[in-house]
C-alpha cells in the first residue's frame, strides 16, 4: 500500500515494505517468535507496551527504545529482535529519502500476544 500526502507543497510518500504489509507482518512474527517462546505469557495478563524508533534514509530500522514497559528483560530482547527486520523502502519527502518514525505495540491478553505497528507522521 502506497501512502502519498501533499502538505504545504511537500510530497510525502511514507515508508513501505517492498513485498507489502502482509509480508512485513510475517517478517515481524518471524523475528519476534523466538522471544515469545521464552516469555511466560500467563504472567503478563492484560498488559501492553510500545517500542518506538525510526526508519533511516536507507530503510533500516534504527534508534529503537521501549516505552511504558512492564518487563525490562522482555522489552530489551524484543527490541533487539526488531533490528533483524529487513530493510523497508524509506519515507520520501519531495522524492528524497528522509528519516521517519515507527511504533510497534505489543499487547498481552489471556496468555496470548498481539502485535501492531505504524509509521509515524513526519514532524
Major β-sheet profile: 4 strands, antiparallel
Specify the overall morphology: elongated
Helix share bin? 10-25%
Could you give the order of strands across the largest sheet? 1-2-5-6
- Distance N terminus to C terminus? 22 Å
How many strand segments? 8
| Uncertain regions spanning at least 5 consecutive residues | none
- What structural class results from the helix and strand content? alpha+beta
Number of helices: 2
| Overall residue-averaged pLDDT value | 87
What is the C-alpha radius of gyration, as a whole number of Å? Answer: 15 Å
Write the element-wise H/E pattern from the N-terminal end onward. Answer: EEHEEHEEEE
Strand content: 35-45%
Task: Kindly describe this structure.
The protein has 123 residues and is of the alpha+beta class. The protein contains two helices and eight strands; from the N terminus they run ββαββαββββ. The strands form two sheets. A four-stranded antiparallel β-sheet has the order 1-2-5-6, with no helix packed on it. Strands 4-3-7-8 form a four-stranded antiparallel β-sheet, covered by helices on one side. Strand 1 (4-7) and strand 2 (10-13) form a beta hairpin. Helix 1 crosses helix 2 (72-82). It is elongated and about 50 Å long. The two termini are 22 Å apart.
Amino acid at each position: 500500500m502506497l501512502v502519498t500526502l501533499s502538505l504545504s507543497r511537500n510530497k510525502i510518500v511514507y515508508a513501505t515494505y517492498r513485498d507489502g504489509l502482509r509480508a512485513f507482518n510475517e517478517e515481524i512474527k518471524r523475528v519476534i517468535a523466538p522471544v515469545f517462546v521464552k516469555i511466560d505469557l500467563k504472567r503478563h495478563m492484560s498488559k501492553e507496551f510500545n517500542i518506538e524508533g525510526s526508519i533511516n534514509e536507507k530503510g533500516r530500522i534504527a534508534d529503537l527504545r521501549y516505552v511504558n514497559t512492564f518487563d525490562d528483560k522482555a522489552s530489551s530482547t524484543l527490541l533487539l529482535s526488531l533490528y533483524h527486520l529487513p530493510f523497508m523502502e524509506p519515507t520520501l519527502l519531495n522524492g528524497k529519502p528522509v528519516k521517519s518514525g515507527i511504533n510497534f505495540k505489543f499487547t498481552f491478553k489471556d496468555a496470548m500476544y498481539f502485535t501492531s505497528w505504524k509509521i509515524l507522521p513526519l514532524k
